[in-house]
Amino acid sequence: MPSYLVETYLARGRAGERAARERRARSAAEELAREGVDVGFDRSIHVPEDELCFFVFSAASGRDAALVAVRADLEPLRIVETITSKEER
Predict the structure, then answer these.
(1) Mean pLDDT for the chain overall
(2) Alpha carbon distances (Å) from 72 to 5, 24, 32, 75, 88
(3) How far is CA 75 from the centre of its chain?
(4) Mean pLDDT within 75-82
(5) What is the mean pLDDT of residues 54-83?
(6) How distant, in Å, are the alpha carbons of 9, 22, 32, 69, 78 from that of 45?
(7) How far apart are CA 24 and CA 73, in angstroms?
(8) H-assigned helices in the chain
(9) Dist CA 62 CA 70 (whole Å)
């Protein structure tokens, strides 16, 4: 299944919010999966210096990744499909 990177803003001084956002992302993905949407939460990556936080979802489409991001109230700036080096081997 494809992976999607959801880019969000997270101010350096509010880094403690990452855990709460991650819980919301996981919960929203689980809720949508119960509703039949093929999505899953993989992980988050916080880059404090750039004030960005990325959430990685496995999803059947970019639309589904956007749906889970909005439901989790992540306020996405951008959503892009990703390919990891592990997939290229």
Answers:
(1) 93
(2) 14, 5, 11, 8, 30
(3) 10
(4) 95
(5) 96
(6) 12, 10, 22, 15, 15
(7) 8
(8) 17-34, 62-71, 85-88
(9) 12
CA 76 – CA 70 distance, rounded (Å) = 7
The alpha carbon dihedral of 16, 20, 26, 32 has a sign of: negative
Query: Is the per-residue pLDDT at 89 higher than 80?
Result: no
| Size of the chain, expressed as the number of residues it contains | 89
Arithmetic mean of pLDDT, 24-39: 96
Determine what percent of the chain falls in helix, strand and coil, rounding each to the nearest 5. Answer: 45, 35, 25
Report residue 31 as tokens. 């809720």
Q: Examine the pLDDT at 21 and tell me if it is beyond 80.
A: yes
Domains in the chain, start-ordered, CATH in brackets? 3-88 (3.30.70.3090)
- 76 with 59: CB under 8 angstroms? no
Residue type, 32: L
